[in-house]
Each structure stands twice: as C-alpha cells, then as structure tokens.
Design goal:
By secondary structure, this protein is an alpha/beta fold. The protein is built from eleven helices and 13 strands. The longest helix has 15 residues.
C-alpha cells in the first residue's frame, strides 16, 4: 500500500525584494491578504489536501512566521478575559492546523538548497513542496489532484500551467511526451527559466510539487545553475531521466502574492469572497471605481 502524502515543505527563506519597502522589516509571507497572512492561505491549502506535518524553511529575519503558527498564551489570556471567544478560537485554530516545524536555510543558495534542508525531516517518504508566493484560487484542489496522481503512479508529480511564450522565461519549463485526458503528462526533460526561443513547451512549473524522497539524492549533486543558485528544477531534470517525473496540468488560477499588482488583485478577489466582508466590500469597490473613472 502506498503511503499517502502527509508531509509538506514550504520554503520561506527569500528576502522578498520584489515587495520592498513592505518587506524591509517583516517577512513577505506575513503580508496580509484581507485578514490572514499570505502563508496561512498556503498552509490551509496543504491541510485541505491531507497534509498534517509542515516544515517551513526560514532565514534569520523570519521569526514572525514561527510566532504566527505557535500558541500565544498572553494574547489568549487577554482574549479570554475580554470574552472575545471568536477571536480566541481563530487564534487557537491556526496552531491546530497541522504540526509545524521550522528549520533555517543557513545561506541563500537557491530553492534547491532550501528544499535540501528538509532531507532529515522528510526521511523516506513522499512529500509536497508549496512555494508560498503562489496562492491558489481553488485552494486544496490542485494539490489534491497531484497527490492522487502520485498515489496512482508512485512517481514525482509537478504542477504545470499553460502560459504565453513571453512569460516562459520566468519559470521552470518541461519537455513533455504524452498527455492523458486527466492532464497528466510525462516529462522527459525540464529547464529553469529558458529564453523564449529555447523553451521546450508553453508549460510552466507552478509552485506545487509532490516528490519521492530520491529527489534529495539528486539535489546533493546539483551545481549552481541559473542566477548562480542551486535550482530545484536541475534536480528535477535528474528525476525525469531516472525514476521518472510526471506533470499534472492544472487548469486553475493563482495569485502571485509576491508581486505588487497581483497582490492587489488577490486582495480584491479574496475580499469579495470573504464571508463577513464580501457584500459590503463589493458596494464599496463599485463606489470607489465609479469615482475613479
Ligand atoms: C521558482 C522555480 C520555478 C517555478 C517558479 C514558480 O522560481 O525556480 O521553476 O516555475 O518558482 O513560481 P522563482 O519564482 O522563485 O524565481
């Protein structure tokens, strides 16, 4: 019987330079979208897909991430005393989402190096990786489908999305061999951020992965690649030619919360979906847009 995927790794050690000055003194993952920090959406997505154990890879300026997923007895005591039971429950629920672990990357040597820090914690089982800049519109559904593909095939599976060729040089890009009806493709090769005229397809690696633990073997051998960094994609290229790598083309939207314009889009869309605020926010938004046009 195949073990279901229960552990996830969230690399969150990056400096967030695309979002300065907001990220000068706080982690980019803690910037709120409506009323929750961005990383909480990603954690909730993982939990919806069945993940129960989450390892967050951090760097020295990321203490707030640990505090957010830890208990805060002082705050809980104050909320209890003031009879703010809903708020108390919300604060406690964050800690109960999963079992949280944290480890530091040590040096900013690239995404592949960040994921390698998870080796001992993961041990000998399949695991998911979620890049926290991307917030999935369909929450846990895409990752759930990728895990299903892994359970059926025992292969590593990467989430893919069609993009226009002008965007492809911002992403990992695979050469794919066959496509089934369910959006599953066999990856024969994969390159990180290829120039448009060298890209093997119009499929982009989105920030969701399910890996078999042999990924770590290849990560150890990866030499600095694009941008002088140890690239996760370069270890995936080794997986593709050895134990196998599948892609699952995900027809779902996402927000790039690390990018200012897309962050605004996410705030508006998530605000409109919000149970308590959505209706009032829609009225307010119409009024503001009416005034501006
Ligand atoms: C990373 C990965 C890239 C992937 C992208 C998805 O790049 O290296 O393969 O396509 O995330 O967002 P980054 O955006 O960190 O430069």
């Amino acid at each position: 019987m195949v073990t279901p995927v229960r552990k996830a790794v969230i690399p969150a050690a990056g400096l967030g330079t695309r979002f300065l000055p907001a990220t000068k003194a706080q982690p980019k993952e803690m910037i709120p979208l409506v009323d929750k920090p961005a990383i909480q959406y990603v954690v909730e997505e993982a939990v919806e897909a069945g993940i129960t154990d989450i390892l967050i890879i951090t760097s020295p300026s990321k203490r707030a991430l640990e505090d957010h997923f830890d208990r805060n007895p002082e705050l809980e005591e104050i909320l209890k005393r003031k009879g703010k039971t809903d708020e108390l429950q919300q604060v406690r629920d964050i800690t109960d989402l999963a079992t949280f672990h944290f480890t530091r990357q040590g040096a900013p040597l690239g995404l592949g190096h960040a994921v390698l820090q998870a080796e001992r914690h993961i041990g000998d089982e399949a695991f998911a990786v979620l890049l926290p800049d991307e917030i999935m519109v369909d929450r846990g559904e895409p990752l759930t489908k990728m895990i299903e593909t892994h359970v059926e095939t025992r292969s590593s599976v990467v989430g893919l999305r069609e993009v226009s060729m002008t965007e492809i040089s911002s992403y990992g890009c695979p050469a794919v061999e066959q496509q089934g009806d369910d959006g599953v493709v066999k990856i024969s090769a994969i390159v990180e951020k290829p120039p448009m005229d060298e890209a093997p397809s119009n499929l982009a690696v989105m920030g969701r992965y399910v890996f078999t633990p042999d990924l770590f073997r290849y990560l150890h051998d990866v030499r600095p690649g694009v941008g002088g960094e140890i690239q996760l994609t370069d270890a995936m290229a080794q997986l593709a030619t050895s134990s196998g790598l599948l892609g699952r083309v995900i027809d779902a939207g996402s927000y790039d919360a690390g990018q200012k314009l897309d962050y605004l889009r996410a705030t508006v869309e998530l605000g409109l979906q919000h149970d308590e605020l959505g209706a009032d926010f829609a009225v307010m938004l119409k009024e503001i847009v009416g005034r501006a046009t």
